[in-house]
Protein backbone atom coordinates (compact mmCIF):
# COMPACT_ATOMS: atom_id res chain seq x y z
CA UNK A 1 0.00 0.00 0.00
CA UNK A 2 3.00 2.32 0.04
CA UNK A 3 2.29 3.30 -3.58
CA UNK A 4 -1.25 4.46 -2.76
CA UNK A 5 -1.68 8.10 -1.86
CA UNK A 6 -3.99 8.67 1.14
CA UNK A 7 -5.45 12.08 1.89
CA UNK A 8 -7.26 12.55 5.20
CA UNK A 9 -9.01 15.60 6.53
CA UNK A 10 -8.76 16.91 10.05
CA UNK A 11 -12.16 16.40 11.66
CA UNK A 12 -12.58 18.73 14.58
CA UNK A 13 -15.72 18.99 16.65
CA UNK A 14 -18.05 21.68 15.48
CA UNK A 15 -20.78 22.92 17.73
CA UNK A 16 -24.26 22.60 16.39
CA UNK A 17 -26.93 20.06 15.63
CA UNK A 18 -26.67 17.24 13.10
CA UNK A 19 -29.43 15.56 11.11
CA UNK A 20 -29.28 12.23 9.34
CA UNK A 21 -31.91 11.99 6.61
CA UNK A 22 -32.54 8.28 6.15
CA UNK A 23 -34.58 6.45 3.55
CA UNK A 24 -36.69 3.50 4.71
CA UNK A 25 -36.15 1.69 1.39
CA UNK A 26 -33.52 -1.07 1.80
CA UNK A 27 -33.72 -0.70 5.56
CA UNK A 28 -31.55 -3.77 6.17
CA UNK A 29 -28.62 -1.90 4.58
CA UNK A 30 -29.50 1.59 5.75
CA UNK A 31 -29.67 0.71 9.45
CA UNK A 32 -26.02 -0.38 9.47
CA UNK A 33 -25.05 2.89 7.79
CA UNK A 34 -27.05 4.91 10.33
CA UNK A 35 -25.38 3.11 13.23
CA UNK A 36 -21.97 3.77 11.67
CA UNK A 37 -22.73 7.45 11.13
CA UNK A 38 -23.91 7.91 14.71
CA UNK A 39 -20.87 6.04 16.04
CA UNK A 40 -18.54 8.25 14.00
CA UNK A 41 -20.18 11.47 15.20
CA UNK A 42 -20.09 10.35 18.84
CA UNK A 43 -16.44 9.25 18.61
CA UNK A 44 -15.58 12.73 17.34
CA UNK A 45 -17.19 14.41 20.33
CA UNK A 46 -20.72 15.10 19.11
CA UNK A 47 -23.38 14.64 21.79
CA UNK A 48 -26.18 12.18 21.02
CA UNK A 49 -28.60 14.95 22.03
CA UNK A 50 -27.39 16.97 19.01
CA UNK A 51 -28.18 14.21 16.49
CA UNK A 52 -31.61 13.95 14.88
CA UNK A 53 -32.70 11.15 12.55
CA UNK A 54 -35.30 12.04 9.92
CA UNK A 55 -36.82 9.00 8.19
CA UNK A 56 -38.37 9.30 4.73
CA UNK A 57 -39.83 6.62 2.44
CA UNK A 58 -37.01 6.77 -0.12
CA UNK A 59 -34.45 8.87 -2.00
CA UNK A 60 -37.11 10.85 -3.86
CA UNK A 61 -38.40 12.39 -0.62
CA UNK A 62 -34.97 13.32 0.78
CA UNK A 63 -34.72 16.79 -0.83
CA UNK A 64 -38.14 17.70 0.57
CA UNK A 65 -37.11 16.60 4.07
CA UNK A 66 -33.85 18.53 3.92
CA UNK A 67 -35.54 21.67 2.71
Overview of this protein structure:
The protein is an alpha+beta fold and 67 residues long. The protein has one domain (18-66). It has two helices and two strands; from the N terminus they run E-H-E-H. It has a two-stranded parallel sheet with strand order 1-2.
Secondary structure blueprint with pairings:
Blueprint: E1 18-23, H1 27-43, E2 51-56, H2 62-66
Parallel strand pairs: 1-2
Number of helices, counting only DSSP H or I runs of 4 residues or more: 2
The averaged pLDDT comes out at 89
* Cα end-to-end separation: 42 Å
Shape: extended
Number of domains: 1
Largest sheet: 2 strands, parallel
State the assembly state of the protein chains.
single chain
Structural class designation = alpha+beta
Roughly how many Å is the radius of gyration? 15 Å
Name the beta content range. Answer: 15-25%
Give me the count of strands.
2
Q: Provide the helix percentage.
A: 25-40%
SSE string, helix = H, strand = E?
EHEH
Strand order of the largest sheet: 1-2
Question: Spans of 5+ residues with little confidence (pLDDT < 50)?
Answer: none
